[in-house]
Amino acid sequence: MSYPRSTGLSGLLLFVLLAFCAPVHATTVCVSSAVALKNALTAFDLQPDGSTYTIKVVQGTYPVGATLAQMYGEIGGGEVNLKLLGGYADGCGSRTPNPANTVLDGLDAAHSGIGFLMRGDSSALIEGITFTRFKGAGNVPYAESEVLLIDAEGSGSDAQVFEVRQCRFTHNSGQNIVRMSGAQLRFVNNLIWDSTLAQEAQGVDKGAFTVTLDADLDAAVTATNNTIVGTTGGPGMRIGTLITGDSGRLSEVTDNILWNNPSLDIQFTGGTDYVYPLTASYNLYATANANFPQSPTDLHSDPHFVDLANGNLHLASNSPAINKGAFLQLSGFPARDLAGGARVVGSRIDLGAYESSIDDSTTAIVTRTSDNGNNGSPTPGSLRAAIKAANAAAGPYTIRFNVAGSCPRLLSLAAPMLDVTGDVTIDGTTQAGWAPNTHYGAFDANLCFYVNGAGNANTPWALHVPSSAPASARLVVRGLGFAGFNDAAIKLEGGHAHSIAGNQFGAVAFTPANASAIRVTGNSGGAFIGGYDDEAAVNLVAGSSSSGIYLDNAAGGSVVANNVIGFQADGLVGGPNANGVYAFNSKNNVVQYNYIGNNLSSGVILSGSGSSGNRIQYNTIGMAYDGSPAGNGSAGVLVSFAAKDNTIGAPLNATWGGNLVVASAGAGVWISPSGGTGNSVLDNAFQGSSGLDIDLASVGPSANQATNPAAGPNALQNYPVLASATRDLVKGIEVVGGTLTSAPNTTYRLDLYYATVCSSAAAGRGLAQVPLMRTAVTTGALGSVPFTASVPFSWGGLPLGVISATVTDPAGNTSELGNCIGETDNDPIFADGFEDAHG
């Protein structure tokens, strides 16, 4: 079924879409006493399946002793997302997320601690709380003890995210202070100090912070900006793995301080066979075992805390950790430091949990909007003069704003702006009246300084890093608006590690469009466009006459995350670019969590043989944040001109990362006739595409090939032909039977999809409204195999519909969706035939 752009989605498909995107139920409780906290935690086990349960803890000290010592979630059977958040004022109307304000005191009681058992796809976030004087709650029968334990039930799920953020752990003891095991484990911006580890079971691991990466999951750990100091009896940070190199996720251990942990500061376990993708850099520590991948960026000197003996682990003014962190973090910098203060102050983030107020950059203040266009003798107080001074500086340089008058202030360039060749931060958030964006799907920031090129031929860009700039050149731009530039408002041809966050490109009244908002090209290294875990980092990219974000640098490696692309500032009305995001001969870029809609051509384009290793994941393509359709004028995602080995949705061995693609005027994902091979299209959900949800080669369905693989996009991978589909309501599974004919003696990934109806774009073909789950089928010596496959079906509220499938070969070539087959129901109530697959 296809949907005209003007009519929206039908009620049934909107139900499917919302079921796919949102939790069924959400409950929030506000607690202000130890008894209320205990009751709230106990109620976690009673929450409905698929819900989100938020416990807001009012500021104060809670003498809980051992009363919280329980494995919460062990009794309940549902998938419930948990948020345990400290720092609230009375009534929970406002919040100051400094963990020093919300203290859980274990009173040195024996077996004190807290644990959570998370089921299915559920996630957990613990933030803004101090845990002190806990003795570790025993986890019988395993004889382990932890202060805080977050664990997955059974083998867990690839979709689970367990995060401990901005918390303090002081004067605690146990086998582990914090222990986490699961798929996505995040320990960010925390302090662990003065811990005593005791071995309670022979051969069981221990550490102040301990994670275990399970080979059964697509697992990864993110440990960034933590301070772990003064651990006795075991290592400060212990990361164990059973992964043998098949994880599709990249782990990151960056910007931590680990010091004065006498056993080891960092311990990695696992023999030479146990490896996994990992980046580790910019850490400060004294000792690590041989398995830890040390980096030349690491530091090994005393971090110089303000008062270590008394627990003040802020950085002293002579600390080597100040302004010495990584230029970028894979998951984005923390939005604030442990005490709730600003991140980042100075040219680079500080190591550890606290950010110093020391700014190592020289500063210029822009005080006027006038511009004489003279690079040799610019108007004093102008942006041009500030950039000239920045280029002449020997070190990092920050440009701030203090222009008189009310917002907004408009700078109209009189001539091409001076190139940026130094390490320069242009911070529009410093202009009086600026306010940050507060929404991931819209842009409600109050910007106070705009730069206008007026569409003049002599103003191709507002800011430009030339290809001749040194490798140390770096441009950071925050909180500015741009309009009227006929190349790109920001063009990055040289330098590396640029950051463009919290800006508006286009959608500015009474100004002409930009050709592109941001272009990363030439010999420039990766750029970070947008950000993670911080609404203020969202960029608005609207109305570009060419591609909104254009990546054509051979080095690739840019991140485009959490931007609003093709919308007006409200996130609802269209502000179309010609294309949303265009990667041309650019590799290893990450495009995640963006809203990309209303663009005149495609939402995302991957083009050119150099475009490989790109990851398009978790995006909402063709829909506004309120669920209304905002389809792109052609394909949701287009792959062309030999672009190859890209990931659109889940990695080959995983079920996470899927995009939601809605209301495309063409195919949902189109691997065009010129497209390359190895492009996996997995675990995405599609609604209302005018064409096929997944289309290979020419527009419209491609027949299965007599011999496979064949010459063509994605090797014209054959699709599986289904013969039967039965929903087993008792077991909660879908059982399908069919046949696959392809390469001999090859194991294929088989993905099943649910839809309410078959495709109207191709008679008898399927739609992928709801991805179910993957399994595997292996062909025989003749290349053909009949199969019966069972996958979980957890969408019990959906009516009986139709099932279709894709297969993906070991090289990543995904087929089109095959034929659709009506579901039957094994429930004996319907055995008399009064209800068929179409209700």
From TrEMBL:
SUPFAM superfamilies xref list: Pectin lyase-like
Keyword Signal: yes
Top-level division of the source organism's lineage: Bacteria
Span of the signal peptide: 1-26
Keywords of the record: Signal
Signal is among the record's keywords: yes
NCBIfam families, alphabetized: choice_anch_Q
Listed name of the protein: Parallel beta helix pectate lyase-like protein
Organism annotation: Dokdonella fugitiva
